[in-house]
Amino acid sequence: MTRRSIIAGTGSALPKRVVTNHELAQTVDTSDEWIVERSGIRQRHMAGEGETTSTLAIEAARKALTAAGIDGSQIGLIVLATTTPDQTFPATATIVQDAIGSNGGIAFDVAAVCSGFLYALGVADSMLRAGMAQRALVIGAETMTRLLDWEDRATCVLFGDGAGAVVLETREVAEDGPGILTTHLHADGAHNELLYVDGGPSTTQSVGHLRMKGREVFRHAVVNLADVLGNVLKECDLSPADVDWVVPHQANQRILDATAKKLGLPPEKVVVTVDRHANTSAASVPLALDCAVQDGRIKRGDLLVLEAMGGGFTWGASLIRF
Ligand code: UT7
């Protein structure tokens, strides 16, 4: 027997408003053709009035609690990954904590941009197995569209808003039982200038806009993701053939294809939502996970590999028996 963090439930939330590429092309010098060909994105959800990172996070969290059959008072730890908090402080996790009624436990945000959910999952899993709580909510929530420069067509067409959440619960399970088997996390600060926001409280005292050298990020993403995916499988003596579903960060269809090809993973094992949601940064992995759980593709016992890469650079992967 071994002690593991099990995914007891998943949930997600999207803003009401859907913006298609055609609609964007009315105000941005772009086209549906260019966006679909270069990224696979067809539409994105965009937060409107009254919709914030915390409102999306709370909705996703409530759904994950319902799916797990528990209520907020049973959650001892909330780790929320975001680059777009409601406020510089307090942590958005504390707003969620109050809304779901788990006051008194641990709640904090992590910032690892698009890899944020993987970082949050790794941190929550370690804290649960260390006995600091018995159940955790791990959330990725973003309103990335509020960081965009609508004059910069190379970035503003690529992002969307949303949230995803999972309830983790520690249990003693058999070696071949469910739970998080391993998580590998990495960062390399040498590449900060390829993907960053040109503002912040300590520099410009403003929020700033997202800046990206897309082509360079693309190149690093494929190499780093294939490496980290290979390494989590190797650690657990598993091969790509053992994987039932890859749940990747949804930045670009071409990155998904290239990474799967590099590892010899058939494309039909890759959960794709980038066409509908665009890049929702830290929210994209838990959103994709919940979509595939809801539509019945991901079933109990399936072997999942979650992966992401983003600003920092940060990247990581987690191998999970669902
Ligand atoms: O989530 C964090 C990680 N982020 C990523 O993984 C993003 C990785 N990068 C990418 O997904 C791709 O590099 C992009 C989708 C961002 C761009 O695709 P690309 O094939 O690398 O295009 P590019 O940036 O090299 O631009 C090609 C051309 C340029 O024109 P010229 O210089 O060749 O005449 C751009 O000006 O496309 C032009 N362009 C556009 N045209 C129409 C750039 N943005 C647009 C646009 N509409 N929105």
Topology:
Layout (H helix, E strand, L loop, with lengths): L1 E12 L3 E4 H4 L7 H8 L3 E4 L6 H16 L8 E5 L10 H9 L5 E5 L5 H14 L5 E9 L9 H4 L4 E13 L5 E9 L7 E3 L12 E3 L1 H22 L9 E4 L4 H11 L10 H4 L6 H11 L8 E8 L3 E8 L1
Parallel strand pairs: 4-5, 4-6, 11-12
Antiparallel strand pairs: 1-7, 2-3, 6-7, 8-13, 9-10, 12-13
Helix pairs in contact: 3-4, 7-8
Describe the structure.
With 322 residues, the protein is an alpha/beta fold. Helices cover 32% and strands 27% of the residues. The mean pLDDT is 97. The strands form 4 sheets. The protein has a 5-stranded mixed sheet, sandwiched between helices. The radius of gyration is 18 Å and the shape is globular. The chain has helices at 21-24, 32-39, 53-68, 92-100, 116-129, 153-156, 214-235, 253-263, 274-277, 284-294, and strands at residues 2-13, 17-20, 43-46, 77-81, 106-110, 135-143, 161-173, 179-187, 195-197, 210-212, 245-248, 303-310, 314-321. It folds into 2 domains: 2-173, 3-Layer(aba) Sandwich (Peroxisomal Thiolase, Chain A, domain 1), CATH 3.40.47.10; 179-321, 3-Layer(aba) Sandwich (Peroxisomal Thiolase, Chain A, domain 1). The protein has 10 helices and 13 strands. Oxa(dethia)-CoA binds at residues 30, 34, 38-39, 114, 153-154, 157-158, 214-215, 217-218, 221, 251-252, 255, 279, 310.
